[in-house]
Amino acid sequence: MGANTKRKRCAPSSNRAGGHVEPKYHLKHGEPIGKGFGRIASEQITAAIQQLSRNGESLDARVHEARKNVKKTRAVLRLLRSAIGKLYRRENRTLQEVSRKLSELRDAQALIEIFDRLNAKYRNSLGNRTLMPVRHGLVQRKTQLSKRFHTSGDLPAIVETLHEVCERIGNWPMDNMDLSAALNGIAASVRRGKRAFDQASANPRPENFHEWRKRAKDLRYQLGLLGKAWPAVFAAYEESARDLEQHLGDDHNVAVLRDTVLQSPDRFGADEQLQALMPLIDAYQQELREQAEILGRRLYADKPKQWRKRVSVCWSAWTHETSSAAL
What CA–CA distance (Å, rounded) separates 319 from 15? Predict the structure, then answer.
């Protein structure tokens, strides 16, 4: 490819176990906004490359962390959407495809984790019945998917794609970016989140709750990016968005668990196990959605323009504070 000199800034710093350090995910004091977002995006992609290139740790854990790095980068992209124009669609589509290739393996592990949580939560109500055949089927399914991922050749191709994205970040047109682009991004995230919340409330289909989860994740990450402007307040909003995302993520996982078991019931035990499992999934899902609704009403109480004004005022105050401190 003839880009070895460029590659060094995007390559993992260490392949040894324990060599990875997760980069900070926020703008620094006095850092120009465009430069800061470019730095953060580059650091997140580099971290994803490092995770996928490391040895000595389980692939599950590395894929999970790399997916988070990619999702954080996409949250940065959404804040930059009005500033980088057509580049947004290309880069977002590329990272979306990376996430899709990594998701099957991670989702298989997530089903095991949500089953364990469900089984522990309702253990007493099961009495002498056991759901372990369901778990055995999930573990077997995950093992098969893991073997397929190892032999598919997807991992080297994913790392190559991430290198290419990382090299392009330096060419994103962000030198003249100001706060307005970030404010537009926050307002858009709140608007899309409220729309997704309303859609899920009006039509409680799994895909609507899943869409709402993605919008909650955007807001959570973006509040983290800008949170230094007023840590005491934005940290609370970020925590609420994280809790909302967690409830909606668990809702998605139990919905996928139900579909996975019903699509191939012979792999997950006898009718007795499935008949015991389905009411527990329904009960847990109802609880999760009620908790999500409470958080949604709080997070989306203010309109996008109010969020925009709040962030703008806090950012100006923070800039003045840090400038005064430097005198």
Answer: 39
pLDDT tens for the chain, 327 residues long, are: 443 434 444 655 444 444 566 898 999 888 889 999 999 999 999 999 999 998 877 888 899 999 999 999 999 999 988 888 889 999 999 999 999 999 988 899 999 999 999 999 999 988 888 899 999 999 999 999 998 888 888 899 999 999 999 999 989 998 878 889 889 999 999 999 999 999 999 999 999 999 999 999 999 999 999 888 889 889 999 999 999 999 999 999 999 999 999 999 999 988 888 899 999 999 999 999 999 999 999 999 999 999 999 999 999 888 887 555 544
Query: What would the two tokens of residue 153 be?
Result: 């050749």
- Length, in residues, of the chain: 327
Chain-centroid distance of CA 322 in Å reads 31
Cα 82 to Cα 240: distance, rounded to the nearest angstrom: 27
pTM for the full predicted model: 0.88
At 271, list the tokens.
């009718």
Q: Are 134 and 261 in contact (CB under 8 A)?
A: yes
Q: For residue 38, which amino acid is it? A: G
> What gap in Å lies between CA 109 and CA 277, rounded to an integer?
18
**DSSP per residue over 96-120, as a string?**
HHHHHHHHHHHHHHHHHHHHHHHHH
| C-alpha closest to that of 317 among 229, 197, 195, 221 | 229
Residues 6 or more apart in contact with residue 182 via CB below 8 angstroms: 33, 37, 79, 225, 226, 311
Classify domain 21-322 by CATH architecture: Alpha solenoid (1.40)
Q: What string of DSSP letters covers 160-196?
A: HHHHHHHHHHTTSS-TT--HHHHHHHHHHHHHHHHHH
> Quick one: DSSP state of residue 227?
G
200, amino acid identity: A
32 φ, ψ (degrees, to nearest 5): -55, 140
Structure tokens at 120: 């522990």
